[in-house]
Automatic annotation (TrEMBL):
Pfam families: Pepdidase_M14_N. This is Cytosolic carboxypeptidase N-terminal domain-containing protein. The lineage of its organism: Eukaryota, Metazoa, Chordata, Craniata, Vertebrata. One of its GO terms (molecular function) is carboxypeptidase activity. Signal peptide: none annotated. The keyword Kinase does not apply. Residues 44-99 form the Cytosolic carboxypeptidase N-terminal domain. Keywords: Carboxypeptidase, Hydrolase, Protease. PANTHER family: CYTOSOLIC CARBOXYPEPTIDASE, CYTOSOLIC CARBOXYPEPTIDASE 6. Its cofactor is Zn(2+).
Length: 121
């Protein structure tokens, strides 16, 4: 049932402690203290349609992302929009795991298309 699915989603997706978007958040490695270095990725969603609520640094090349709920339906997270800055040249590839995007069972063949734009400094 719909209620059971909603309850499952709420129980299995981590709560976002703040209802605000991340604003120029630097994802430091665990135990690192100091100024950001090139390669410490900076995530931002403080703009219209941005909805990134939390980032967890897993490795130098992997990050777990948690999306804020949709405004009109807080039980669902079905899209995401954020920016990433401060990538170093030797780090051309990194993995982001969008951990809490929720797509209903009635859309089993839905495809997610990523739009990536890169600006070289």
């Amino acid at each position: 049932s719909l209620e059971r699915s909603d309850t499952w989603a709420e129980a299995n997706f981590p709560k976002i402690s703040s209802q605000r978007n991340l604003s120029k958040y630097t994802a430091f490695p665990p135990g690192y203290f100091g100024q950001p270095k090139k390669g410490h990725l900076i995530f931002d969603a403080c703009f219209e349609s941005g909805n990134l609520g939390r980032v967890d640094h897993i490795t130098e090349f992997e990050y777990d992302l948690f999306i804020r709920p949709d405004t009109c339906n807080p039980r669902f997270r079905v899209w995401f929009n954020f920016t990433v800055e401060n990538v170093k040249e030797s780090q051309p590839h990194f993995r982001v795991n969008v951990c809490d995007v929720f797509i209903r069972k009635r859309y089993p063949k839905i495809h997610i298309n990523l739009i990536v734009s890169s600006l070289l400094e």
